[in-house]
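Notebook p. 47: complex prediction with copper (II) ion.
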Amino acid sequence: LAAMGYADWGGGPRPESGHDHGSGEGEGPGEVAVADLVADPALTADVTAELVVRDEGDRVTVNGSTPGPLLRATEGDLVEVTLVNEDVADGATLHWHGVDVPNAADGVAGVTQDAVMPGEEFVYRFVAEQVGTYWYHSHQVSHEQVQQGLFGGLVVDPADPEPVDVDEVALVHRYGGAGTLNGAEGTTAIEAEPGDDVRLRVVNTDNGVATVWPAGVPFRVLAVDGTEVNGPDEVTGEAVAVPAGGRVDLGFTVPEEGVRVDFSGGTSLTVGSDPTGRRTPAPSTVVDLLHYGAPADPPFAVDDPDRRFDYVIDRRPGFLDGRPGMWWTVNGGLYPDVPMYMVEEGDVVVFEIDNRSSDAHPMHLHGHHGLVLSRDGEPATGSPWWVDSLEVGVGETYEVAVLADNPGVWMDHCHNLPHATEGLVAHLMYA
Ligand code: C2O
Ligand code: CU
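Predicted complex, structure tokens below:
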């Protein structure tokens, strides 16, 4: 079976894509500095797309639909996306969630660019260096625009892919109350034959955690936040929790009777035939990534970091922008009176995230991936667990190591997006 993206389920058109530099020997992007590749307007992009955003009342659409088109690139491609704002009055941007793009392409209105106002456009360029599952969304009034639909999927395939029979993206989203997968409520059927290998890329575009559970079939967690899991274990009868903003790729082989995959929002996928005929109860056990998969050495030394930072989350009454209320605090301060985490390029930084509030927070750092070292003092013992979106439960403490290798000013905020609006925001800043 051919690989199918969600665009094949009736979404928008796929971008034009020509992977020409893969064939020419000696001309690969590895021989040119990435910054030059991105900045040189004379270089032709491998993947180009124009994304037109429009205000349709309770929805914001991208090329006439929500979610917007699935963008698909190959590792090493120069990606060029033009955002055209037709009439979104607040302006809009595109943030490449989980992709460690150059700072100027990060799409944070008010930080890396101005919002793109109605009638304006903006060109994003970056090299797709990280293989995996990502997504894009507006980062202007994002607690409204993302909820209303200004987002879409992004997949970067390896230059030398391993064959898979079925490759699907499932964007989890609630519009108002109703749960959807790629914009569709209820159950979506995916064609597959018994024996097919499936990679299911689950992207949580909501504000709360999404759980997903393949019923009856053993499965593996193949990747988390775009990074492949080392030596993934086979599990049966467990659920997988995907934090807001996070992605998990699941892998399984379709048995004779098919596979049913149920999601917490009331949606389901059937792959091949439907083995149960209806939703299955959510398993009570959730895969714990702290101990999942096989260990491997991290690519940088984490034992003796150059800097250690506290990121203590709490809540208290006060004034934010002159508005009285209960607001989130970082290290006791109300935004913008919160720390700038100052680093120098090359630093190994360990963040200790300590959630002392009575709500969970899916914390998202832009421009970098973090390696989870421990939770509540318990060391990570499984596969290196790389995150850009990490669910920090009530009372939990995580240590996360980050290599400061992407200069700029980067947001580090809660991806329960109303919480970010209520002050749960800090910045990582290069000296
Ligand atoms: Cu997906 Cu700062 O966001
Ligand atoms: Cu939060």
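Notes: The longest helix spans residues 34-39. The pocket of CU-O-CU linkage (ligand 1) is lined by residues 95, 97, 137, 139, 245, 364, 366, 411, 413, 415 (CB under 6 Å).
Next step: compare against the earlier run before touching the bench.
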